[in-house]
Amino acid sequence: MPAEYPTLPGRLLKGFERYLSPRAQIYRENGQWLPISSQEMLRRIAGLSESLAKLGVAQGDRVALFVSNSPEWHVADFAALGLGAVIVPIYFRESAARMAYILAHSEAKVIFVAGEEQAKRWREVAQNCRSVQKVIYARGAAAGKATAAEGNRGVAAGRGSGSEGSGSGEALSYEALVADAGDAEIGAYRRRIAGLRSDLLASIIYTSGTTGEPKGVMLSHANFTSNSQASFERFDLGAGSVGLSFLPLAHVYERLVDYGYLFNGVTIAYVPRMEDVPQALLEVRPHICAAVPRFFEKLYGNILERGAQTKGLRRRTFDWAICVEKKAVPWRAYGRRVPLGVRLQWRLANRLVYQKFREGVGGRMVEFISGGAPLATELAEFFTTVGLPLYQGYGLTETSPVVATNLPSASHIGTVGRPIPGVEVRTAEDGELLVRGPCVMLGYYKKPEETRAVLSSDGWLATGVIGGLDADGYLSITDRKKELLKTAGGKMIAPAPIENALKSSPFVLNAVLVGDRRPYIAALIVPNFATVRPRAAQAGVKLVSPQEMVSSAWVHDLIEGEIKRLTANLAQFETIKRFALLDREFTFDGGELTFTLKLKRRVIDQRYGDVIERLYAQPAPASPGSR
Q1: Is the pLDDT of residue 401 over 60?
Q2: What is the three-class DSSP state of 27?
Q3: 220-234 pLDDT per residue, tens
Q4: Please, what CATH class does the domain formed by 484-615 belong to?
Q5: 3-state helix, strand and coil shares in percent for the chain, rounded to the nearest 5
């Protein structure tokens, strides 16, 4: 493997040599998008790497990144990797307790902190992180306003006024550490990385997980570069295209995608806050964007909400275009024949309505990529049909991450695509998906028993999901093995496909199935107040608040009708017998979602335990109907 795949810094240099870009990175500051060229990015990387070496960072040392999506994230990443150091990324809104655990468990020697919020969080945990000797602040972090002279004096001495090993760490300025770098530092950086092997440990990524203590996934340089070569680079985007980076870079999904951008001459546009994504789409006008299903669910909901707010001819045109979209799905999404009339209607709808959908995300989007959780087939069909191709893939942190992906040249909606080159996939007797290939992790850091439990001696990784390949080699994922519901009657039910079907309703924001070891399946439903309220107004029902909405008999009947419509093809034991309406959405800040917006079912079960118990207080009805 070391001979076959390059190191991450080696692959970056190859990309810079092939694609000399005036805008390798762009970021928003004071209302403007500012560029950083590939030459300037390399200068900063080399300068920081030289400074880290003088500070005593060496091969194998752990370097933590507590930084939101920004140019500094990748500069620090490649600077440390160029020394053979190991990156420990920390989600930029991580809790103090988990952050302290990650830093202590990984024995991080240096931490990068960017931003006031991150600096405040670091101060909360600093005294409990005795391994941290150096703290490098960037982008206005309060403790990082050292002058260039002060920063350089700290580098020259290898230490500063801070007390090493005290838990607070010596404070240094990122800007100072890169200020004076030039050709000499770039030359030294090139010489260093030439001596690195790609089987070296590159990163320890602590999984957020839906349950249990976080595990540190160990990934090598070759894990990453093999995965980038086999997956992202087959999207064949032209140099100079723009990719939006807004999912947390601490998560392996966005990290691998951004490596793909850098290696292939695609400009990275950094968006540090999720709430700024809609504006960034309009300003940056990206060609590609990687996101999770929740992003596409919200985008779809916003489209329907805007349509619901129109009146008269515009409203009738919008509703007609949505009906045309459904008729055009076989043609646009699957390449099948449809009547000439449908094709003509689609072309008219495209000019009148779908073009506006595309303009709402910048007007230049070539492809969306979905990962991190199962995507509803209806969403992929919708976006692809209206001219926003959406390609779903599958992976996990332990596989760096991509196992399979749909591509512009080979896509089958409803699957996660074919396994990428070099990756083998097979199914265990119980239906669990097993994976082997150069992207499979080295193991869990300091957890040999947990490693042996999922990784066989001959390299097969147990993924924890149920899935299989079809006759054409496309992979389908049923659900996570641990999340299958087993009813009291012994029936096994995969909740994710049913939940995704429910969320395809314009009136449903989120849905969670319950029923493990229960006599029947029930659901917790979060209605979409923005779309339910105008529909209720048309029926003469006034709704002022989400609380009024969930107590309304009219809304209950509306949601019941949606459940019946969207689950009509399910087996009897899979049907939802009762449901409850909730007046607030599940959120990461609320603790119900992971960093990639997957449901934390255990938390939801506990938080809404009394609601769930009421759903099972009476014998099951023949159909949905109990609030």
Answers
A1: yes
A2: strand
A3: 999 999 999 999 877
A4: alpha beta
A5: 45, 20, 35
SS3 state of residue 304: helix
CATH superfamily assigned to domain 291-363+365-481: ANL, N-terminal domain (3.40.50.12780)
**Closest residue by Cα to residue 439 from 414, 413, 412, 405:** 405
Nearest to 480 by CA among 456, 513, 449: 513
Annotated domain spans of the chain:
8-198+231-287, 291-363+365-481, 484-615
Rounded Cα distance between 100 and 175, Å, is 26
Residue type, 516: D
Q: Which residue has the tokens 């054409």?
A: 472
Question: Which one, of 481, 291, 440, 430, lies nearest residue 373 by Cα?
Answer: 291
Q: Are 145 and 99 in contact (CB under 8 A)?
A: no
Among 24, 28, 27, smallest CA distance to 12 is for 24
CB of 80 closer than 8 Å to CB of 45: no
Q: Which residues are bridge partners to 391 per DSSP?
A: 369
Instruction: Find out whether 398 and 433 touch, Cβ atoms under 8 Å.
Output: no
63, 51 Cβ separation under 8 angstroms: no
**Domain 8-198+231-287, CATH class in plain words:** alpha beta
- Take residue 294 and report the two structure tokens written for it: 């929740």
Torsion over CA: 537, 541, 543, 544 (sign): positive
Q: Please state, rounded to an integer, the average pLDDT across all residues of the chain.
A: 90
In 3D, which of 363, 372, 235 has the Cα closest to residue 295?
372
Q: Name, in order, each residue with C-beta under 8 angstroms of 407's C-beta and a sequence gap of 6 or more.
A: 234, 235, 391, 417
CB 448, CB 429: distance < 8 Å: no
Pairing of strands 170-173, 134-138: parallel
The burial of 472, by beta-carbon neighbours within 10 Å (0-12 exposed, 13-18 middle, 19 or more buried), is given as exposed
Q: What is the average per-residue pLDDT within 150-157?
A: 48
